[in-house]
Specification:
Elements lengths: L1 H22 L5 H21 L3 H24 L1
Length: 77
């Protein structure tokens, strides 16, 4: 289940990044950051399952920060 979510979040984030680079329209950057934050969250859960807690906590911190930045930029729009 986590592998499926990881693939969905990464493909969505990468496609939004490619769309922004091709069209030079960066209004959807907050969605790209949100999906990449969800991707890092699933990576953090997988690292906790592998008993790599330091790397898991690092990924959780980065994902929470990126989700916070995305929500903050969405509210300010």
């Amino acid at each position: 289940m986590l592998n499926c979510l990881k693939i969905i979040f990464s493909i969505t984030g990468i496609s939004l990044a490619a769309y922004g680079l091709i069209t030079r329209d960066f209004q959807l950057n907050y969605l790209m950051i949100l999906f990449l934050g969800f991707f890092m969250f699933t990576l953090g859960i997988q690292e906790f399952q592998k008993q790599r807690t330091v790397y898991g906590w690092f990924l959780m911190g980065v994902s929470i920060f990126s989700i916070f930045v995305s929500v903050q930029s969405f509210v300010l729009i």
